[in-house]
Amino acid sequence: MTEEQIRIKTILIVDDTPENASLLEAILSPEYAVKTATRGSEALEIAKETAPDLILLDIMMPDMNGFEVCKALKAGKATAKIPVIFVTSLLRTDDETSGFEAGGVDYITKPVIGSVVRSRVKAHLDLSAAQDDLEELNKDLKKRLTQSIATLRKKSEELQSEELLKEEIQDAREYAEDIVETVREPLVVLNSELKILTANHSFYDTFKVTVEETIGNYIYDLGSRQWDIPRLRILFEEIILHQIVFNSYEVEHDFPGIGRKIILLNARQIYREKIGSHIILLAMEDITRRKQLEKERDRLAMVVEFSSDAIFTVSLDDVITSWNKGAENIFGYSAKEIIGSQIFTIIPAELHNERSQILKTILSGEQVENFETSRIRKDGSRILVSITSSQLLDVEGKTIGNSVIARDVTEHRKMEDIIKHQAHYDTLTDLPNRLLFMDFLSHGLAQARRNGKKLALLFLDLNGFKQVNDTFGHSCGDRLLQEVAKRLKACIRASDTVARLGGDEFTVLMPDLTHADDVNIVLKKILGVFDTPFMIDDAPVNSGTSIGVCIFPDDGSSSEELMSRADSAMYNAKNSGKNSYQYYRDLSNVPATAGPVILNS
Question: What is the reported pTM?
């Protein structure tokens, strides 16, 4: 094995964006020695000092653009033969054309795919090495055939054109077969008449043809004319007439037997001085799958970029590395502002520990799904988000961070809270409604049973409420109900609950009774709130109430019993006089009265 075969190939990466250069270095460093430069002038100095085997060159750079750098390389004797692959996000056809005119051999678009980069680099290194081998073999052949050239020339004058062609085919085959089998991609060698002199095993395997169908045939006739492609004819005409080298010439074609394929062609003409003829080296790469992946990648990139959800990535050292439009809209930061910042920029200080918990979960192989938490927008406001997060892997399958999908659920949660509140609270008075009050009563009874305590239930009905509605209108009646609710909440104990069952009916729940007189104290306060007229639209309105009272466990053991008996006691109080109360267990007694209240018109 020669020293050249043992030597590790050197790749020079030229990109002024550290993240791009680091990604390319990570992709290539397992197989090649990698050097990096951030400016065009720096790249030229490195290349002149020690020429790399291949250069990956960005186009948009501050001091010299990639086209200028490539032209400078091709102008230098020591650097002219270095293959240059442009790596850029520029997608216009004229940009690609400019790259090839500048001397580039290939064109890779950002964001890069590791398998694509490795494949392109490998192909061009192999092709460059093959050309070097051809040159070395040519030199060697000159030495070995120096004495026989004179004889060959004399004989060639006597030979018929067919015999000359056979000699050329045999000689070129021997010359080329030494190198074509070292290339893993399909490769054929053609003579100046475009007849196939030799092909490697990869060619036969890829296009499903035999040696007999291939050798000595025109390239256009190969495999039932499967290579009779108009664009390929144009390619070969240019090579033959102008001795042009073609790199990355893309052909899409329906090949009999193997279906529709996209093939990348690299071709160059090599002059065979010994016999005064030319051969064409044609390398092929099936990029059908790569193109499919690129389309899928582009489609997914569009989905991610324009998703209404925030989609971003974070490195293991907590740095934000990507940021889509959805993230800009939700958090208020542009990608330019936030990429490179710590993830804690959008996490409230008291929730910083969530970051380590999320990392611990995803590094264990699990995914964080629909985790609701709080985050901070650029303007300082807080939002509720639902987070889904999973591992972010590099091209080698190593975890380098995590991807995050964050959905703003602030308004959704507010709406849920509103709906939940409306389901349990009276919309007019904002007091608990019948449904919620019955739930409080059920829990209060369960607690009273456990603790051996008593519980009081008060059932209130406003006196003359219908007259208020009829006299002043329903709007006035609603205002009266709201004012009554405010006064009732102000006069009960902190542990008590006042609710509106509907219409002009209110209830008061008094749990955990410890003193027999607690209920009477609250009753007197309730009756007292009706002593002062209610001011409705700057007009005084008098009202009173009738109250029914029952006690657990003396008057009943269930919610239904207590509600029914408190209601009966209330009607007894209403019949015996306004602004009064009546205990269910003492319906025969004369009710306490605070005096009737006359409604003013």
Answer: 0.41
